[in-house]
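ZP: hey, is the coenzyme A complex queued? I don't see it on the tracker
AM: it wasn't, my bad. submitting now with these inputs:
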Amino acid sequence: MWVENVIIEDLDEIYNLEKYTFNKDAFSKEILRSLIIRNTLFLKITDDQKRIIGFAIALQDSIDSVNIINFLIDERFQGQGYGSVLLDFTLDKIKKIAHIKRIILNVNTKNVTAQKLYRKFNFKITEKVENYYRHKENAYLMELEI
Ligand SMILES: CC(C)(COP(=O)(O)OP(=O)(O)OC[C@H]1O[C@@H](n2cnc3c(N)ncnc32)[C@H](O)[C@@H]1OP(=O)(O)O)[C@@H](O)C(=O)NCCC(=O)NCCS
């Protein structure tokens, strides 16, 4: 198992995983491509055969805040600790960026598993955002002060 930066050659594998996991809410291939090219914090976790089993995307959205805009582990590998490893690594990377005081993310109010993962890393729910998703589902804004 390994965590490293996503490169453009990973695009198809990343997109397939994104599409499979989030269906209609998936980021488009073009958006994913531009996020890789723009040198966003875009990390993958791979297995021993270098297959991508999950990834995290984080964007600095203000001088002191980073937003984790996408985070997933391949369904076949969930519940085995990979999400925790990837999140731990992602948070460490973000904490090294100068001036960052806050890490934020949005999570579907129904996605209890993801909320548990984020709570484990001390994220707190600070707001409920109505109709956050395209199909009118609600999100929690979760924040971690660092
Ligand atoms: C949310 C997600 C990233 C978690 O990844 P994971 O590799 O399964 O997470 P881990 O195995 O490290 O487990 C982390 C915590 O989540 C919770 N959890 C994991 N699997 C769970 C399950 N099946 N049921 C209930 N809680 C679960 C546990 O609290 C666990 O911590 P613990 O094992 O120390 O108690 C993964 O389920 C996923 O990709 N889901 C689909 C996409 C998604 O929802 N992304 C988040 C969008 S905001």
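AM: back. The CA atoms of residues 6 and 43 lie 5 Å apart.
ZP: great, adding it to the tracker
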